[in-house]
Design brief:
single chain; seven-stranded parallel beta sheet; 13 helices; 357 residues; 34% helix; globular; Rossmann fold; five-stranded parallel beta sheet; 23% strand; 2 domains; alpha/beta
Length: 357
Amino acid sequence: MAAMVVAALRRGRGGCSSRVFAQSFRRFASTLVVAEHEGGQVKPSSLSALAAAEAVSKENKISVLLGGSGPALHKAAEHAASSHPLVSEVLIAESDAFAHPLAEPWADLLRSVQQKGGYSHVIASSTSFGKNLLPRAAALLDVSPVTDVTAITEERVFVRPIYAGNALCTVRYTGVDPCMMSIRSTSFSPTTTEAMSETKVAPITQVDLSFLSEGSLGKSAWVSLTSQDTERPDLANARVVVTGGRGLKSAENFKLLEQLAEKLGAAVGATRAAVDAGFVPNDLQVGQTGKIVAPELYMAFGVSGAIQHLAGMRDSKVIVAVNKDADAPIFQAADYGLVADLFEVLEELLKKIPDKK
């Protein structure tokens, strides 16, 4: 590839050489998607990363990188192999070192795969894992990552939010390969089942793990995972989200919100104020420093609408707000607003909405 580009540049002059180089670059665009999986399936946020890779170039060759061990990894690899028409290969790093989202071994893995594959782009979703991994891997590769991308206009031109989502910035990456970016999964819709029905199954290849050393494995250790045992959908991917703020006043009152969520088949969210007050655990926090959501319906009870919270839910399709303060900023973002006592509203909703079957 390098020889062809050099030859093209020698043949061209001035602006012509730039155009030839751009055409050559587009022809050889390739992307590595760092994917997450759970229960033998690629996570929806990673499927959105595949959609972002397609936005880079329709002729893009996409490689998917998965790590872990056991049958769940192989099942997820099979899912990834047929998850998008542009996926050309699935790389699996089968080792207990990658069974948990520890940044140190994963960063070394990403550096090794990039050095062998020579990808033009590396994409991860802006999850806690992606945010932890990408900066460390970028430092090892001596490049600067572009974070929280919400749109891709050209192969190296991206749109990302700034000022807590109140403005959008268009940036051009001018560094060397790879162009590393994290994407907001809510901004890229995964390929539909219908579009994937005739997709060719990509080959699955084991990654050479001879680079692993005690240095990368001994810097941190996995201790435990604590999560809520619930049948409610994942907050980041739920179609309906019911969120409570400081106005709910106590953890006991949050149970009213949970009852409503059960009836609607919704996920429960919270503001930072509610989390800091100890009403709910911090994994339910929605906002700039929490989870970014964009459900079809977002219901906010007792949420004032701080700028940091709005940054995490402003892309919701329909926003419904209930607050007794008519001047609450949340009403400026809401499609439907009700100035009322949230406890009276919750009581009425719980009475009139039937239980989910």
